[in-house]
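seq as requested:
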Amino acid sequence: MTKRTKKNITPDQIAVFISSHGFGHAARASAVMEAWKTKNNLIYFNIFTTIPRWFFQDSISGKFEYSHCLTDIGLVQKTPFHADLEETIHHLDNFLPFHPEITEKLTKKLTRARCALVICDISPLGIAIAKQAGIPSVLIENFTWDWIYEEYNEKVPRFAEHIRYLHSVFNAADFHIQTEPVCARRPVNLSVMPVSRKFRTPRNHIRKQLNLSPDSKMVLITTGGIKEKFEYMDKLKQLRNIYFVIPGGGETFRRDRNVILLPHRSNFFHPDLVNASDAVVGKAGYSTIAEVYHANVPFGYVPRPNFRESHKLEAFIQKKMIGFPIESSEFQSGRWISKVEELLSLTPPEKNTPNEADRIADYLDNVLHNHRSEAK
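struct tokens:
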């Protein structure tokens, strides 16, 4: 553990480039940053992403630098379950190859800040900037965009040139970390189980704040940070003995009988809501899987068959977690509500699930220490 406390020691500047495709990558990166900051009190993060600043303010203790910066395209989504491939290609054509004026500007910014390390949660831009600035880069992923786009290449051949370009960029990372559920296994420097932000507030405290008794049945409904219209509120209200909590379900906190609607940013830390639940229903995205995995509660998961990683994520859920799939049409129409009693009846086996963000933080601290030693 690194604890440098002398006032004359300059903090190590760490650049973190994060994909803006949903909140999952930001959640994973935040878990790593928070774990590392706890171990090393003299690092300072420079975050580059289009994920809102407030997400990191809510997830990371201490100060950090934030730059609103498009770091990748990912997939342009019409809904949480459907991507627009033509619009994705249009954005990729404008974004790749990286424009020299953008890379030069960011390279100068990292050089002026004397960044010692660049961390990239599937952001190819960060790797390219690190290479140009002569700074070591660390890729953290459970998939990369070139792998995702391969699924669509036959249908839309224009993906091919972007796949080749991104493949070369991702392969240029100096260090490589994979987190389960891994989609495409390859030789890496470190492989860990799912990474999520740590729970902060005890389960019973969260329930008290929601005005729920400790033994009330609570189901969390989530779409992973992507807005979704919920057309089945009346059906939820018919199950009066079960309370449904929906982050992103409203602009303000509102309770309507047994349904509690929360804004995307509320007074509740999202992992704590997962931990306070008796079951979770929602999109099978990375951060939701990781949080449900660590909370060890039943998961009614909605696969996304049109997304290549969905099959890998679903296989992990079936092997390592407890729950069952809910088709997207069932989720959107509310037909899944007839299965909620069955979901709540499932009993997960007891397990010890250490949060792997600590292992990544230890690894990054060693990389930073070795880099600092070599620089002397």
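Residues 203 and 276 are 4 Å apart (CA to CA).
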